[in-house]
Amino acid sequence: MRGLAATAVALLLAAPGPIARAGSGHERLHLRTSEAFAPCLAPALQAFTRESGLGVAVDVGDVDPPRGADVVIGDDSEMTRLLEGGAADLATSFDLGSLPWVLVVPAGSPVGSLAALAPEQVSVMGGRASRAARESLQAVPASRLRVSRNADELREARYALVPRSLAGPGEHRPSGVRPLMAVTAIVTDAPHPDGARALLAFLRGDRARRLLAPCLDPAPPEGQARATSAGSAAAGSFAQSVVDWWLPDCTLTHNGYNDPAKVLGKPDAEFLGVKDSYRGIMSLGQGGYVTVDMGDTAIDGPGADVRVYQVTGMEPVTLYAATSAQGPYNLVALREDCGERTPGFAPPERHCDFNLRDAGMAEARYFKIEDGEIYPCLAGGTITEGADIDAIEILNKKP
Amino acid sequence: MPCLRGISRRRPSPVPIVVSLLAAACGSGPSGPSASPTPTPTPTPGPVVGRYLLQITPGPGCALSREPLTFPMVAAAAGTSPHPGVQVVLDGNPSELEWEFLSENFTLRGGLGTTGDGVLSNETTRLWIHVIGTGSVTRAADGRGEVVSGTLMGYVALGRAFEEEGARGTCSARDHAFSLRAR
Question: How large is the ipTM?
């Protein structure tokens, strides 16, 4: 990796505790997190150390790879490959809270876009978690853009687009960029698994949530039993048959979930508790797709018209729609992040919503769902490469 | 299986011979004897296989350098089911830049991607890319297939060799351009 991404800054938050006493006398828990979340964690980690006696050292930088950490905390986009590849234990993962992006401008600046307001350089946080933020600034000429992962530099910027935790003096304005979602998990080969479990148990508790609250907005409550609250799934209209599909040969060779029929019917994906072990999904690999016949017709109605259910991470999805199986298939949305938490469903179920209006269509019955992650198959380290599709649902059905 | 499957817009204008070939492949072409003069047959393109030069140009609406970036690539057939495929990878470092195409009716369509490290171009600019590309295959001088003009939809970010992703700009667009020429 380049630049500051490779520079891990270790912050010792507490003296060695019981783990150290049981071991070499110098060991402590290692938590690895990204630049955006590091400023949010100190109060909760200090409280954990006071209560448990376990010391925690915080390394700041890319969370993937975990570089010997016991626990990782990163944005959805940074955690996807860690969790799907098994480097971090999906069964232990949960959301800590979200962190909005803010526009930083000098106090009293007129209303307007950052590109229009800034007479000088615009700073933006770098890294994998900043792709959407950088895309939102794509009107700013590259010569005026400063991409940085240096927290001090970002706080000093007069004009910036940064997570709220890295905003310096000036006026902070809401941004339309998707908030970061802090997700934590235990690293699979954590040197101190007992201590790591104790830390996550603490972070799940009310006391930790209160200590994180000034920095992270509360995460929505996790879904419980899906049958009790998944109202839309019970009454919804889901894909009925596969019209066409394609996965690259490389994907067919390396992925483990290649059956297009798994996208039919209601959402039924499950993580079976063991690395790479799922039920009810089709992984789309590198740019693969599946085209389905919904049986019913979706119409352009109030709110979103179509929902795609996808599991574990927030792999992007591209959606096309048609009124006949032969097409033409119109582009509805390109590489839409598919990581919204789905109320009433247990993790790792996620979804993304689409509006037919974006394709200029009044109705559609056939949908082509295409992988938008587009990660090189030959570099993939999992058997779930690409978006992992569980189901497709019509939200606005033609009467 | 639908013919001419895919998005209905932003398809690059195919050359006339490809249009006629596509129509024939779909069974929608004229049937029966024709009174018009028989056109001189144009040789069909051969397979997309062997060594190529990939050229990528960011879309015209992107506020970043539009200097084309080039990469030496190697192509090979990749499977036949459920549709025939072609794999095109960076010569020497296949997992750094990989394109997986569906190849039918003299059209290539598929996903081109890099890892989080991006890939260094011949021009020493680093490229991070996640796009779906579409292009019509025509016959190269040596008889193989090639794409002279194609379209890319998706994410492109640029940086210098040791810079952060996007340090020289980021742009998501539906009209980035590419060519894949035989070398």
Answer: 0.90
Least confident of B28-42, B49-63, B133-147, B162-176: B28-42
Which of A249, A259, A332 should one mutate to test binding to chain B, selecting the residue with the greatest count of B CBs within 10 A?
A: A249
Of A3, A374, A376, the CB nearest to B163: A3
Q: Is A234 helix (H, G, I), strand (E, B) or coil?
A: helix
Mutate to test the interface with A, among B1, B3, B4, B5 (most CBs of A within 10 A): B5
Q: Does A65 touch chain B (CB under 8 A)?
A: no
Look at A286 and B100 and tell me if their CB atoms are within 8 Å. Answer: yes
CA-to-CA dists, residue A53 to A16, A72, B76, B109, angstroms: 7, 20, 59, 57
Q: Within a domain: residue B93?
A: yes
For B100, which of A141, A248, A368 is closest by C-beta distance? Answer: A248
Residue A115 has a pLDDT of 83
CA A11 to chain centre: 26
| Cβ–Cβ below 8 Å for A287 and B78 | no
**Whether residue A17 has pLDDT greater than 60:** no
Give the number of other CB atoms < 10 A from CB of residue A139.
Answer: 13
Q: Which domain holds residue A138?
A: 101-174
Residues A59 and A150 in one domain: no
**CATH no. for residue A386?**
2.60.120.260
* One domain, residues A249 and A335: yes
- Give the total number of structural domains in chain B: 1
* Cβ distance of B130 and A373 shorter than 8 Å: yes
How far apart are the C-alpha atoms of B112 and B55, rounded to whole Å? 13
Confidence grade of residue B31 (pLDDT, cut at 50, 70, 90):
very low
pLDDT (average), residues B82-86: 97
Same-domain pairing of A82 and A105: no
In this prediction, residue A313 carries a pLDDT of: 86
pLDDT at residue A284 greater than cutoff 50: yes
The residue behind tokens 């240096």 is A150
With tokens 């067919």, the residue in question is A252
Say which CATH number the domain at A188 has. Answer: 3.40.190.10
Is B142 within a domain?
A: yes
Domains: count for chain A: 3
Q: Could you give the CA distance from residue A181 to residue A173 in angstroms, rounded to a whole number?
A: 19
pLDDT digits (tens, 9 = 90+) for A378-397: 999 899 999 999 999 999 99
Residue of A nearest to B82 (CA): A246
User: What predicted TM-score, i.e. pTM, was given to this entire model?
Assistant: 0.87
Q: Can you tell me the distance from the alpha carbon of A235 to that of A233, in angstroms, rounded to the nearest whole number?
A: 6
Question: Are the beta carbons of A286 and B153 separated by less than 8 Å?
Answer: no
